[in-house]
Automatic annotation (TrEMBL):
Organism per entry: Paenibacillus sacheonensis
Cofactor list: Zn(2+)
Name of the molecule in the record: Zinc-binding dehydrogenase
Keywords: Metal-binding, Oxidoreductase, Zinc
Protein family: Belongs to the zinc-containing alcohol dehydrogenase family.
A Pfam family that the UniProt record links to this protein: ADH_zinc_N
Length: 330
């Protein structure tokens, strides 16, 4: 079968071109894609050649992982359903993760249309909510995963490091669970989104000392969620963390992920290290979007026709890029 896909043909090279995809089997669903959401952090690291797989950094001598059809999340209509798939029927609006592809470094793809996808990676979407709201559901699930890991005592302080998408959704999840959330970042426009949404107090690390601000507010921190891989920031916050508190480390650390367990033990800090997605977490994420406590559409800053993916990436990778949520329209 033929399809169209966004392909990283080499480092820093983005193409929109025809690709080969396999014929669907009895376990597959064929999706006519409407929207796919770019995962800026993960996809950028592949585009720059920094990773060779999800959590494996590139090292000299490794084969470059090109070409690849990057990404892992999209929504559309099911147009063909394999005989072994029972939870989806033709015509359903669905969310799909990675799909099958031929002739690439990996045999799976994200931004591809039509998308032949294993039925276990396809969810029927609830009615009454715009489908674009679900188009980044895997990434939304990463934020949900971060915010759902630690136990929460109602009203206790939680600090989310990072004002990107994962940080926003982690903050939303912690807020929905009853925490008093602070979001620490450097982009004023992103921090304003969190405050306007009512789910976090903003701390701009460029203009304030976050530890001093938290100390002045009398915050006894029970949870720190690091979504950007900044252990230095965590170490500055650690003295404010109360006994029997929690660190959720979700940012990509590459080869610089050393944590001194002994210093955690002194405060009995529990370390959580979430990664990837699971069916139960995806179920809860889709439910959260449908119920409105996980907010996605307000975080979409840019939309591009899929054929203009190279232009999207030019903006994403530009210095001081204004992008937060970027969606391709098919």
């Amino acid at each position: 079968m033929k399809a169209q896909a966004v392909v990283f043909d080499d480092r820093n090279q983005v193409l929109f071109r025809e690709v080969e995809i396999p014929e669907p089997g009895e376990r597959d669903v064929v999706v006519e894609v409407e929207y796919s959401w770019i995962s800026i952090g993960t996809e950028s690291s592949f585009l720059r050649g920094e990773r060779i797989s999800g959590e494996v950094p590139y090292r000299p001598g490794d084969p470059w992982p090109f070409p690849i059809a990057a990404g892992y999340q999209k929504v559309g209509r099911a147009v063909q359903v394999g005989s072994a798939v029972t939870h989806i029927k033709p015509g359903d609006r669905v969310f799909a993760t990675v799909s099958w592809i031929k002739g690439m470094h990996f045999d799976f793809a994200g931004h591809v249309n039509p998308a032949v996808t294993d039925g276990g990676q396809v969810w029927k979407l609830p009615e009454g909510v715009s489908p674009i709201a679900f188009s980044g559901a895997v990434l939304t699930q990463v934020g949900y995963n971060c915010g759902s890991r630690p136990p929460v005592q109602r009203g206790e302080s939680a600090v989310v490091i990072g004002d990107g998408l994962v940080g926003q959704w982690a903050a939303q999840t912690l807020h929905a669970r009853g925490a008093a959330v602070y979001i620490l970042g450097h982009r004023e426009e992103r921090l304003r989104l969190a405050e306007a949404g009512g789910y976090a107090v903003a701390l701009n690390g460029r203009s304030v000392d976050p530890a001093a601000e938290l100390r002045g507010a009398g915050a006894s921190v029970g949870i720190v969620v690091d979504t950007v891989g900044s252990l230095d920031t965590f170490r500055r916050l650690q003295p404010l963390m109360k006994h029997d508190s929690h660190l959720v480390s979700a940012g990509y650390l590459g080869e610089n992920g050393a944590i001194d367990i002994q210093t955690l033990r002194e405060q009995e800090i529990t370390l959580h290290s979430p990664s990837g997605w699971s069916t139960p977490r995806m179920d809860e994420t889709i439910r959260g979007i449908a119920e409105g406590w996980l907010r996605t559409e307000s975080l979409i800053t840019h939309r591009f026709p899929a054929g203009d993916a190279a232009k999207a990436w030019q903006l994403i990778t530009a210095k001081g890029s204004p992008c937060l949520g970027v969606v391709l329209e098919w």
